[in-house]
Amino acid sequence: MPLRVTFLGTSGAVPTTERNPSGIHVSREGEELLFDAGEGTQRQMMRFGTGFSVSHLFVTHLHGDHVFGIPGLLQTMAFNDREEPLAIHTPQATRRQLKGLVNALGNRPDFPIRISEVGDGDVAYRADDFEVRTFETDHDTRSVGYALVEDDRKGRFDRERAEELGVPVGPKFSRLHEGDPVELEDGTVVEPDQVVGDPRPGRSIVYTGDTRPTVRTIEVADEPDLLIHDATFADDRAERAGETAHSTARGAAEIASRAGAKRLALVHISSRYTGGVDDHLAEARETFDGEVLVPQDGQKLVVPFPGNEDD
C-alpha cells in the first residue's frame, strides 16, 4: 500500500528557474490528493507524471503562490473530459474568494466542484482507512495546515500460535484476524487476542503551508513519519521570517524535534537562496536528529510504515 509524496513546487512566493511555487501531490493506493496549487502546477503534474486524477485539493491559504495554478488546472481537467467531482477545501471565510478564482475564466468547468471551508480541528476528508485533519497555522492571512493520518492497522496474526491452539487453516484464520472469536470442533473458543498482536500504527504526513513555528503543529503532528514545513529563510534572515509570518529552517527543525517527526522536508524556499540551501540543511541538522532534506521539484518520497514494515 504505497504512500508517495511528489514535490511539485518548493519555492517561496517568487518562482525560480529550478523551483515552482507551492504544490504537494500525495498518492495513496490509487487515491490522488493535492495540497496547494501555485502557478504552473498543472505543468509540474505533467512533467513529473502524477496525472490529473486528483479527488481532493487542500488549500492552506489564498496567497497567489498557493492558488494561482487552480484556474489552469481546472481548465486542463475539463479539456481532458473529466466527469468525476473535485472537492476543494479552503480556510474559513475564504470560500467566496476561492469560488471567484474557480470562475475566473468566466466559464465554470462541466464537472462538479464542491468548495468547503475548514478550520482548526476539522476533519476535511474522511476515507475508509485514513483522514485529512485541519489545524490552525500562524501566517499573515487566514491559513491552515493539513495532516494525513492513517487508521491503526490490525495486529500481526500469529499463525503458528493459532495452529498450536488447534485452529484449522482456512476461514477461521481470517475471522480471528478480523476480531471475531471462533469455536473449534471440541467446543473450545479461541479469542482474537490469543493469536493477534496489538494494533500497529499507520503512517502520517503533516504539511504546514506558510506559517511561523507553532505549538499547534506539534500537537497535531504527534510523531509524523514526514513533516513538510515552511522554511522560507535561513538564520541570516530570521528577523525577516518573523516579520513576514514565515519560518526559518532552524525553527522548522525545532518543531520537528518537539513533534517527534521521523523526517523533515523543508519547503517554500525563498528565491534569495538560488545559490544553494547548504545553510538550511546545516542549521536544521543542528536542531533535529532525524532525516532532513530540502527537496527539489519533482522529487518523490515513499513513506514507509513505522518500523520499516512492508505490510
TrEMBL record:
Q: Does the keyword tRNA processing apply?
A: yes
* Residues engaged in binding Zn(2+) 1: 61, 63, 139, 210
Write down the SUPFAM superfamilies for this protein, in alphabetical order.
Metallo-hydrolase/oxidoreductase
Give cofactor(s), names only. Zn(2+)
Describe cofactor binding as the record notes it: Binds 2 Zn(2+) ions.
* Active site (catalytic residues): 65
The domain of life for this entry's organism is: Archaea
* Domain Metallo-beta-lactamase intervals: 20-246
Which chemical reaction does it catalyze? Answer: Endonucleolytic cleavage of RNA, removing extra 3' nucleotides from tRNA precursor, generating 3' termini of tRNAs. A 3'-hydroxy group is left at the tRNA terminus and a 5'-phosphoryl group is left at the trailer molecule
| Ranges for region Disordered | 1-24
Q: Where does Zn(2+) 2 bind?
A: 65-66, 210, 268
Give the enzyme class.
hydrolase
One Gene Ontology term of the molecular function aspect: 3'-tRNA processing endoribonuclease activity
Q: Which UniProt keywords apply?
A: Endonuclease, Hydrolase, Metal-binding, Nuclease, tRNA processing, Zinc
Any idea of its EC number? 3.1.26.11
Q: Which NCBIfam families match?
A: PRK00055.1-3, RNase_Z
Family that this chain belongs to: Belongs to the RNase Z family.
- Kindly give the HAMAP family that the UniProt entry links to this protein: RNase_Z_BN (MF_01818)
Q: How is the subunit organization of this protein annotated in UniProt?
A: Homodimer.
PANTHER family for this protein: ZINC PHOSPHODIESTERASE ELAC PROTEIN 1
Cited function: Zinc phosphodiesterase, which displays some tRNA 3'-processing endonuclease activity. Probably involved in tRNA maturation, by removing a 3'-trailer from precursor tRNA.
Q: Give the protein's recorded name.
A: Ribonuclease Z
Gene that this sequence comes from? rnz
